[in-house]
Amino acid sequence: MNKIKIAMIFGTRPETIKIFPIISEIKKYPHLIDYRIIVSGQHREMLDQMLEIFQINPDYDLDIMEQGQSLSDITKNSLLGIGKILKKERPSIVL
């Protein structure tokens, strides 16, 4: 039986809090679900704090934040990074 492959993408403290219960549930089914965790690093300090508290180890960290970049730069860098990962991983579901 082929596993379902899920990519979970988040980057802020509130997103981490919301997705943690999903990650916890998915971990119960390693024989059915293969998952990848992708973080944007959008709010680095708060994100790292939540990753440590919830013991989440990202498979990919886009680390997109740079000093003085515009919102369009952040969006562009996020989409380019996510696009490369999704092309490589080819998930069935993206959260």
UniProtKB/TrEMBL annotation:
Q: Name one Pfam family in it.
A: Epimerase_2
Please name the InterPro entries in this protein's record: UDP_GlcNAc_Epimerase_2_dom (IPR003331), WecB-like (IPR029767)
Enzyme Commission no? 5.1.3.14
Residue ranges of every copy of the UDP-N-acetylglucosamine 2-epimerase domain listed in the record: 32-95
Q: Does the keyword DNA-binding apply?
A: no
What keywords are assigned to this protein? Isomerase
GO MF terms held by the record: UDP-N-acetylglucosamine 2-epimerase activity
UniProt similarity note: Belongs to the UDP-N-acetylglucosamine 2-epimerase family.
Q: What is this protein called?
A: UDP-N-acetylglucosamine 2-epimerase (non-hydrolyzing)
Organismal lineage:
unclassified sequences, metagenomes, ecological metagenomes
